[in-house]
Amino acid sequence: MITYEYPLSERVRTLLRLEDLFDKVAYFSSAQGAQEHHVALVILFEILDITSRADLKFDLVQELERQRQILLSFRNNPQIAEDALSGALLEIERASTALLTMQGKIGQNLRENEWLMGIKNRVAIPGGVCEFDLPGYHFWLNRDTALRQRDLSGWIAPLVPIHDGLSIVLRLLRAAGRPETRVAEKGAYQLMLAGRTAQLVRLRLSSDETVIPEISANKYALNIRYTVPAGADPRPKQTDADISFELTFCNL
């Protein structure tokens, strides 16, 4: 199955983008090669740009506290496993505490590093990080792998509370939905929302289906159009087949 997600709020859109970037920076920073570590650094700069435009820490702490209060209301409920509930509450409390103890602006440790900011400014220029532009960076890329990984870990570490907090929020959000089977007749599906509130739409379909969903939504309707992957003709073409898929509306 392939899962596609479509955010219905700007906050969830930001969290999904950060989740994707954190996954990538973890992958490339754990690799061995200098080129992979360059990519990890570029992605770290992207995380820095996104976190500088949003009051993420406050939003995450607020949402985690709201979820903590909801979970506390399930105490002594015979239908709820106490061990699982206690584990979830402990995870939320740890994430909240880590966020609250973060000092200063998110990513301040990176912004105060002139060497990193010099690289960040050159990354925006096509081909701007060649060895003759940044010999110091070229030297770093040729250092021992373990030293580069140590540096990357040190730069990423202050951002870990943000990653942990958003991971909990997104996990709870995804778990809050109930999947339903739907069929897009001749590749098209529309649903009038009629007051339904949601923060995220999840769509799952078989990986055997050679179609790509184009999703659009507003507070009134959800529209899904399944197109055939582009071949010689670059223009997307809607499929004529009926497509069965799983649709989930998620809301905290």
Salient structural properties:
single chain, 252 residues, alpha+beta, YacF-like, 2 domains, four-stranded antiparallel sheet
Can you walk through the features of this model?
The strands form two sheets. Strands 1-4-8-2 form a four-stranded antiparallel β-sheet. The protein has helices at 10-29, 34-51, 56-72, 82-100, 108-111, 114-123, 135-141, 145-156, 160-175, and strands spanning 2-7, 180-184, 188-192, 200-205, 212-217, 221-228, 237-238, 243-250. The protein is built from nine helices and eight strands. The chain has two domains: 2-172, YacF-like, CATH 1.10.3900.10; 178-250, Sandwich (YacF-like). Helix 1 (10-29) packs across helix 9 (160-175), helix 2 packs parallel to helix 8 (145-156) and helix 3 packs antiparallel against helix 4 (82-100).
In short:
The protein is an alpha+beta fold and 252 residues long.
Write down the domain tally.
2
Estimate percent helicity: 40-55%
Number of helices: 9
Q: Could you give me the name of the CATH homologous superfamily of the largest domain? A: YacF-like
Radius of gyration: 22 Å
Dominant shape: globular
Report how far the terminal alpha carbons are from each other. 25 Å
Write the layout of secondary structure elements.
Layout: E1 2-7, H1 10-29, H2 34-51, H3 56-72, H4 82-100, H5 108-111, H6 114-123, H7 135-141, H8 145-156, H9 160-175, E2 180-184, E3 188-192, E4 200-205, E5 212-217, E6 221-228, E7 237-238, E8 243-250
Antiparallel strand pairs: 1-4, 2-8, 3-6, 4-8, 5-6, 6-7
Helix pairs in contact: 1-2, 1-9, 2-8, 3-4, 3-9, 4-9
